[in-house]
Copine C-terminal domain-containing protein (Capsella rubella), 237 residues
Amino acid sequence: MVCLPASNGDPRNPSSLQYIDPSGRSNSYQQAIMEVGEVIQFYDSDKRFPAWGFGGRTSDGSVSHALNLNGASYGDEVVVVEGIMAAYASSLRNVALAGPTLFSHVVDKAAHTASQSLSQNSPKYYVLLIITDGVLIDMAGTVDALVRASDLPLSVLIVGVGNTDFRQMEILDADNGRRLESSTGRIATRDIVQFVPMKDIHSGQVSVVQALLEELPGQFLSYVRSRNINPVGAPAI
């Protein structure tokens, strides 16, 4: 999942976070895709990933918050990290950046995939990777979507690019020990969000692997324990 909102600036402008440099130098989003994707892909057996964007205006003038980066004529899956990179670069050539930035649509889309897998008794656990500049409009809707998704085999990893104030992302991460609470008063079953600011990684404060895996194992274990799921041949938890 890649953010394509107008808040990033025109990708033809060198000051944009999504500027495509003719020299081949990676922009902030491409750096995040490569650095994060190269770690995440080893946890996927077939190395095929759905690639979506949000905040993109298509050729018919509509704005999508769950845009298929692979093109309308193809499925939404791409192969390995290079496939994500190619789909991202293609989308910037064919999709205009737009606003506002909404997370709830893509969280619900990932939750739907996880829910379908669960209904089919498929032993899969999903990770939704969101790369964003942190300018979020639907905070309440996003919290509601995350609370709904907290019952599902799903974790959400948010990678922040740029130097925006990421307080909203830190709230979603819920590292203060308080689980997210929806607008109806429902408390999340478990914490499913991990937020990683790329500026901390690039400053050497934390490694990519450490940032990615710090909370994911615990989130996975909290899910399987809640479902009384045990690995084949393992003693009961």
User: Anything to note?
Assistant: Residues 233-237 have pLDDT under 50 and may be disordered. The longest helix spans residues 104-119. Residues 194 and 207 are 15 Å apart (CA to CA).
